[in-house]
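The record is passed on directly below:
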Amino acid sequence: MSVVNLTETARDYLKSVGQPNVSLSVNGGGCSGFQYVWNTTEKEPTVENLWIDPIAEMYILGSVVDYVEELGGSFLSVKNPASTSSCGCGESFGIW
């Protein structure tokens, strides 16, 4: 079982980014307690071209990563089944 699942649009986006790989980690903070942190890394990817911080794995296990294109911009989004709350911007979440 993968830590996260990627939608087809996320998979295509991550392939288009190429090297360095995209990284996803989780930090304490944000409106709801935790926040997703996107960056780049030279580390070996966990899933496709996405490296996931091992510490973040327990917070995002079973999540779906999607690439969203909207009028205001485009971004990677995490749909987290463990999340019990989130903020309006979608960058922070709570799990307790």
User: Anything to note?
Assistant: The radius of gyration is 13 Å. The beta strands are 4-6, 21-28, 34-41, 50-52, 63-70, 73-79, 85-86, 92-94. The chain has two helices and eight strands. The first helix runs from residue 8 to 17.
